[in-house]
Amino acid sequence: MLCVGRLRGFGARAGALPSQWAGQGSLQAGIRARRVSTSWSPVGAAFNVKPQGSRLDLFGERRGLFGVPELSAPEGFHTAQEEALRKTELLVDRACSTPPGPQTVLIFDELSDSLCRVADLADFVKIAHPEPAFREAAEEACRSIGTVVEKLNTNVDLYQSLQKLLADKKLVDSLDPETRRVAELFMFDFEISGIHLDKEKRKRAVDLNVKILDLSSTFLMGTNFPNKIEKHLLPEHIRHNFTSAGDHIIIDGLHAEAPDDLVREAAYKIFLYPNAGQLKCLEELLSSRDLLAKLVGYATFSHRALQGTIAKNPETVMQFLEKLSDKLSERTLKDFAMIREMKMKLNPQNSEVMPWDPPYYSGVIRAERYNIEPSLYCPFFSLGACMEGLNILLNRLLGISLYAEQPAKGEVWSEDVRKLAVVHESEGLLGYIYCDFFQRADKPHQDCHFTIRGGRLKEDGDYQLPVVVLMLNLPRSSRSSPTLLTPGMMENLFHEMGHAMHSMLGRTRYQHVTGTRCPTDFAEVPSILMEYFANDYRVVNQFARHYQTGQPLPKTMVSRLCESKKVCAAADMQLQVFYATLDQIYHGKHPLRNSTTDILKETQEKFYGLPYVPNTAWQLRFSHLVGYGAKYYSYLMSRAVASMVWKECFLQDPFNRAAGERYRREMLAHGGGREPMLMVEAVMTVLIQYYPHRTNIHRHKQQ
User: Fold this and answer.
1) With 0-12 CB in 10 A as exposed, 13-18 as middle and 19+ as buried, what is 340?
2) Where is the Peptidase M3A/M3B catalytic domain positioned along the sequence (predicted)?
3) Exposed end of the chain (fewer CB within 10 Å): N or C?
4) What is the distance between the alpha carbons of residues 156 and 684, in angstroms, rounded to a whole number?
5) Segment 54-107, tens digit of pLDDT
6) Strands of 418-424's sheet, edge to edge?
7) What is the set of active-site residues?
8) What is the pTM of this model?
């Protein structure tokens, strides 16, 4: 019913904006702005200079994380948690005693928000904070709130208060569409949690859910844990590529871009060597999910997880994946043949294509065929330039500007975290984005978006502004240059900013459906759509310029870069089909017909085509099995939808303001408050009215 298991939200409204925004909408005066004398806009400059740290706030009041006073110390999580639980009790009593009506849904949403305000923030802190004490306190808060949520999802009195509303046809008909949908979503959460079961089975469902939360956390931590090998077992000439620790070599990743075949092979075999504890954790996680699904009335966990998505059921997902695989197969074989030819050219002694080869050799082919080398592009993609590019795009498309704001002392968890205020030209402040962009010890090696606080309309009429974190793993700046991004890093930045804009622009009445709180196979549409902008030369030409000379990136280089991304694209997508199929099988019929490793081997050879490497277990590094369990296909399905939106809305003009406003109004603004395909169809229908001659839209809709 509430926030655990969904994309979530929490934070604190704080800080201020450049003075020209004083008085706009809900903005306030009394502003500090950091002025840097360069050719960049304020946001570009902020990301191309060293962080100023907390020295500006030596005499200011110390705030807690995200401006939450209690979180100035790890113990504050317990205080925040207790306050949330106290408020929860009051709201449960209120929900159960209030006559059925629209107010019932508002109370449920406030109940959800009060728990998410702690759980979502803790969900981020437990993996990202550099201090172990904060991580441990956040982990405990996550578990505590998660347990309460699962108990509420099986609370019969609470369920009946909502059921009375939805059973009254006259009352339901009087609800506006968003309120009705949110009420139905809360009811759906009760149903998939086993509210219809007897008391003993409901308790069993709660216990299973809590166990799944614990196993998920353990498995997720294990996916990033490095492996080590005795130094003498590695050839001496490749040891310098890895970290040494006494008599051991530490392998913390796949080193997929390393030019030496032996380095990639060693990294692949050692990093993916099976860990018995991690394997047991995965088996228990999959088994517990299956038990829960069967307990609450579903054939498999996949059937349960896909309720309410675009795909609806696992049969549709598998049909989609199999059809896509069939369409890709011929091109994938050509890609592998091309990779094999290049490997034979560079390494005649061993030309068989292995799983550690495609990322490296496809890069070599791109560089040779299109005369590009990623390092030639990096000077044109300083982080400041890329942020400026996002600022230009968002301003022209949606009337939005990004402003860097100095965080208060204690507000951020690392001194290099930047805080952005998102400002609309007429609506004023929309929300905040915290940019945790740089590599540091113990930080997860993944790019992702976290909702810290969801937007919602409060009882006093004010709008609770959304707060999110974007987490990347970019190299730090050096004495001689700012942070420079490869083209791939730039594309990832645009992707994650797509999630952030979904959160910022989702102006729903209820936080339960704000921004990215929508079906998973729709949540990736805005982020993947941003990749299309990042690969369009008309967009890239607006910001890609040399960090030293200011020289624009030549149009021919931009065009070659965009064309080069088609190289081995089929093999890349085929790999995603393999991952998505594996995910479906793991969450399909149980008991599984074989071990997870045997299933990996079979699926890899059938849906990818490259041989399985003995004594490896890639599935133990498959972190998406936690947050995207039975839903990894979402990336592929969202790509199909995003492609359609791009072609029909922005291909002719990526800066089309009218198309941008329609995209915001018909898709982004609703978050999860409308059925996903209704939103897509609304964008297309409006587009037909503007461009009736573009008849291929009808064809897309029929397909």
Assistant:
1) middle
2) 255-684
3) C
4) 42
5) 444 445 566 899 999 999 999 999 999 999 999 999 999 999 999 999 999 999
6) 400-405, 418-424, 428-438, 467-474, 448-453
7) 496
8) 0.88
